[in-house]
């Protein structure tokens, strides 16, 4: 195969790949998405998840700097591994889900750091307290859809999660690893 033909073939494949990402992702597919967390309780690794969350996104992987994203998690939808833990974590000492039913994340800046790799900066609000967060995110194309994955570590004390007798970190560690896997799809 001559050089010109190889170049044309490579350009055609590149153009097709770009066309697959032509429409920005504007919605998440909850059934194919997850928000999970992990932490240590008495030195033992524990895992949990949130069953209800919603997002407003406008993300084009080729124009990350123009992206917008708002994400809300229904705190009462927590699954901490047992009904006893689920009942406890929504109380005033932990999430205080009655007064603060949702946690929210608002992306302020998304920038590409490598092919399909991004750095996301934004604010995370829980229990009326807002803190800046920054984390890496990966994009994986899945036909017309895209998979956005990432994680970050938050300090529960920064959001008054675990007050009173739970304020110390001897039983439940301060570090909480938050993980997300969001299947996104173009708008209608």
UniProtKB/TrEMBL annotation:
Report keywords, A-Z. Answer: Signal
**Record InterPro entries:** Lipid/polyisoprenoid-bd_YceI, TTHA0802/YceI-like_sf
Leader sequence segment: 1-22
Q: Which domain of life is it from?
A: Bacteria
Keyword Signal listed? The answer is yes
Question: Which Pfam families has this protein been placed in?
Answer: YceI (PF04264)
Q: Where in the numbering of this chain does the Lipid/polyisoprenoid-binding YceI-like domain appear?
A: 25-185
Protein name in the entry? Polyisoprenoid-binding protein
Organism in which the protein naturally occurs: Limnohabitans parvus II-B4
Source organism phylogeny: Bacteria, Pseudomonadati, Pseudomonadota, Betaproteobacteria, Burkholderiales
